[in-house]
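Next up, a chain.

===
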Amino acid sequence: MKNMGSIDRILRIIAGIALVAFALLGPAELAWKWVGWIGVVPIVTALIGWCPAYTLLGIKTCKAS
């Protein structure tokens, strides 16, 4: 069951791509560059349309069907 709307999904993809790009293209000497790989999570949740945190918190950004 999906719990994310279109705008939410688009914003997650943009944020996820930005974080992954930082991990790939950011300065090599950054010790915490691995944090950028957290961007994979919003990309995956956007692609499947379901966020486990939304389920726990009772949030639903998609239109009622």
The mean pLDDT is 91. The chain has one domain: 6-57. The chain is about 55% helix and 0% strand.
